[in-house]
Amino acid sequence: MGASHARRVREGPLALQDVLDSRMVSDPLTVADCCLVTDGGGAIVVTTTERARTLRQPLVPVLGVGEAHWHRSISQMPSLTTTAAVDSGARAFEMAGLGPADVDVVELYDAFTINVPLFLEDLGFCDKGEGGPFVADGSIVPGGRLPVNTNGGGLSYTHPGMYGIFMLIEATRQLRRAAGARQVSGADVALVHANGAVLSAQATALLGGVATL
């Protein structure tokens, strides 16, 4: 598995007031609500369970996957508050035989800050309309009941235009207990979710640690 070495565009702390005071891009999103474009690249290796057992690194099984595509343009969305993640997530959970309560760590494609509460709702981690309070009460922070985007996400780690590979890499590190200071204790099931084509195409994957085999 390869790791990325993104060109650092901005460093340092970012407080809530800094985001609120940032230049408006598209109301209510400020420039701090949007991913910076950075350099980066990554890779993963997918093979059979039998082959993976012979390799040096602990294997990370794919437990379930799901995809859904409802429309082409964002202007065709039936509702801006519900995405096809409703379907992709349900398919992934069904294949894995799991539910939201079984997930220990979540990696979400956060091209904008609005993506996180939107996908948390659509994937069943909280009720529709409760994504904001769910995030605001600290549920998704390190040590919270559902750690989300443990590498900082596209907003705070890297976003070379195709961020999805980095979520798979981070989930793999978490499940291998190889995430260092950001390691989520007892992480055995990770959900990775990406979107594309301006909120139209959605893909969800559930990955597990060795204990899930």
Indicate how many domains the architecture comprises. Answer: 1
CATH class: Alpha Beta
**Share of β-strand residues:** 15-25%
Q: Please summarize the sheet with the most strands.
A: 4 strands, mixed
Span between N and C termini? 21 Å
What is the CATH homologous superfamily assignment? Thiolase/Chalcone synthase
* Oligomeric description of these chains: single chain
Q: Summarize model confidence as the mean pLDDT.
A: 89
Question: Segments where pLDDT lies below 50 for 5+ residues?
Answer: 1-6
- Tell me which CATH architecture applies here: 3-Layer(aba) Sandwich
> Which sequence of strands runs across the widest sheet?
3-6-5-4
Protein name: Thiolase C-terminal domain-containing protein
Organism: Pseudolysinimonas kribbensis
Domain Thiolase C-terminal: 66-208
